[in-house]
Amino acid sequence: EDQVTQSPEALRLQEGESSSLNCSYTVSGLRGLFWYRQDPGKGPEFLFTLYSAGEEKEKERLKATLTKKESFLHITAPKPEDSATYLCAVQERDDKIIFGKGTRLHILP
Amino acid sequence: DAMVIQNPRYQVTQFGKPVTLSCSQTLNHNVMYWYQQKSSQAPKLLFHYYDKDFNNEADTPDNFQSRRPNTSFCFLDIRSPGLGDAAMYLCATSARYSGANVLTFGAGSRLTVL
Questions:
Q1: Are B29 and B49 contacting, i.e. CB atoms less than 8 angstroms apart?
Q2: Percentage of chain B lying above the pLDDT 70 cut
Q3: Do A44 and B105 touch (CB under 8 A)?
Q4: Which of A1-10, A40-49, B96-105 is most confident?
Q5: pLDDT, tens digit, 9 for 90 and up, residues A60-81
Q6: Among B67, B69, B70, B56, which Cα is nearest to B28's?
Q7: B13 Cβ contact list (under 8 Å, min separation 6)
Q8: What is the DSSP string of B34-57?
Q9: What is the pLDDT of residue A93?
């Protein structure tokens, strides 16, 4: 059973069309939930860490939120340069960090 | 700039011919990770180290081995690569905090098996 499930698998938006990506998780004892951005052929790049339900973090056009079972990455008025794969990951009690499959986001100009 | 460097960026090998991928870091992080990522799939954790304390995932094949001779370096050895081992191999590092471990990734090593 997957511990981290992301949806949708792929999303195409027009420039300026806001939307949200979902990450649901089933781990207990969450130490942290992470969002990373991955461009083709590169390593993931850190965006946010969320620690507890109700927490929110923002960076430019991105806002991440967390509940007890899922996290959302909201993208407001996206631009073509926001096109990438967005990965969600969770950490339980130890150093082990498990990733979801990601959402491939494509912003059309 | 402090960073995580992986070598080689691209590796082509023949079926069954051993391969070693390297990772070095200047961040002085005590946790190092190796992930395998196939196309459109989640990065899959193979191993991680806390200092020299080695942690092997239960489903990591025996064909994969790792060494960490010091804080700065970590190696991934694939003893007899099969076609199914073709993937991007990602090294990441983290400091262990009381909170959560933010990963810094290298650019990855893409392995092709002929």
A1: no
A2: 96
A3: yes
A4: A40-49
A5: 999 999 998 999 999 999 999 9
A6: B70
A7: B19, B81, B111, B112, B113, B114
A8: EEEE-TTS--EEEEEEETTEEEE-
A9: 78
Which among B29, B16, B5 is positioned nearest to B80, based on CA atoms?
A: B16
**B110 close to A (CB below 8 A):** yes
Closest CA to A54 of A79, A34, A71, A37: A71
Return the DSSP state at B63: T
When mean pLDDT is compared across A29-33, B69-73, B87-91, the lowest value belongs to A29-33
pLDDT of A2 reads: 66
Residue A43 near chain B (CB below 8 Å):
yes
Question: Which of the residues B34, B60, B103, B112 would you substitute to probe the A interface, choosing the one with the greatest number of A C-beta atoms within 10 Å?
Answer: B103
- What's the gap between Cα B40 and its chain centre? 18
A91–B101 C-beta distance less than 8 A: yes
The Cα–Cα gap between A29 and A90 comes to 10
CB nearest to A43's CB, from B100, B101, B106: B106
- B92: which chain A residues are within 8 Å (Cβ-Cβ)? 43
Pairing mode, if any, of strands B10-13 and B109-113?
Answer: parallel
What are the chain A neighbours of B41 within 8 Å (beta carbons)? 101
Contact A101 B108 (CB under 8 A): no
8 A C-beta contact, residue B3 and residue B26: yes
* Placement of tokens 């069309």 in the chain: A17
**pLDDT score, position B2:** 61
